[in-house]
Amino acid sequence: MVEMTVSRLGLDSSTNSYVLVLQEKEGERVLPIWIGQPEAESIVMQMHDLKRVRPLTHDLCKSIVLGLGATLRRVQITRVEKNTYFAELHLHRGDTVVQVDARPSDSIAIALRLDAPIFASEALLTHVTFEGGESPLDDDDAPSSPPSRSELSAEELKEYLEHLRPEDFGKFNP
């Protein structure tokens, strides 16, 4: 397993889906994962410390883990089958370790809230190439800052997500 960090979140204009790009912590290989809008919103909100009036599902999961006296030690993205990625939450409470099957997008949203490390199977990582030599890892492709308010309406958040770069994720060639 290789430790990963959240590198970018963008919109794949060819599929109109969000792409979460994880990058290995001590290297350049990446793992792009196509995710849904609710998970993208939740991840962006946590990355930019934005709060909703009521807790999101991933905030609830954090409260449950902490309320039970457990810790999230790590998230592992373990495999891909038929274009579906699989992940595990590794929860510790006392001497008990529980591995919970979960979607990577949910796992990452929860890991960000609990400051837990994210790992991916070595076999899933790739060096990324884009048409025209562009890379999602260049600093000038960083997403723009979210609106300055600490609470966003659903419409404002959706508009912000729709304008995240890089828009050329549809050109991804593993």
Amount of helix: 10-25%
Q: Give the biggest sheet.
A: 7 strands, mixed
What separation lies between the terminal Cα atoms?
Answer: 20 Å
Order of helices and strands: EEEHHEEEHEH
Which percent band covers the strand fraction? 25-35%
| Topology, number of strands | 7
Under the CATH scheme, which architecture would be assigned? Roll
Overall 3D shape: globular
Name the structural class: alpha+beta
Give an overview of the whole structure.
The chain is of the alpha+beta class. The protein has one domain (2-171): Bifunctional nuclease domain. 24% of the residues lie in helices and 32% in strands. The protein contains four helices and seven strands, in the order E-E-E-H-H-E-E-E-H-E-H. It has helices spanning 37-47, 57-67, 104-114, 154-162, and strands at 2-12, 17-24, 30-35, 71-81, 84-93, 96-102, 118-120. The protein has a seven-stranded mixed β-sheet with strand order 3-2-1-7-4-5-6. Strand 2 (17-24) and strand 3 (30-35) form a beta hairpin. The longest helix is centred in the N-terminal third of the chain and has 11 residues, at 37-47. The chain is globular and about 40 Å long. The chain starts with a strand and ends in a 12-residue tail after the last helix.
SSE layout and pairing:
Layout: E1 2-12, E2 17-24, E3 30-35, H1 37-47, H2 57-67, E4 71-81, E5 84-93, E6 96-102, H3 104-114, E7 118-120, H4 154-162
Parallel strand pairs: 4-7
Antiparallel strand pairs: 1-2, 1-7, 2-3, 4-5, 5-6
Helix pairs in contact: 1-3, 2-3
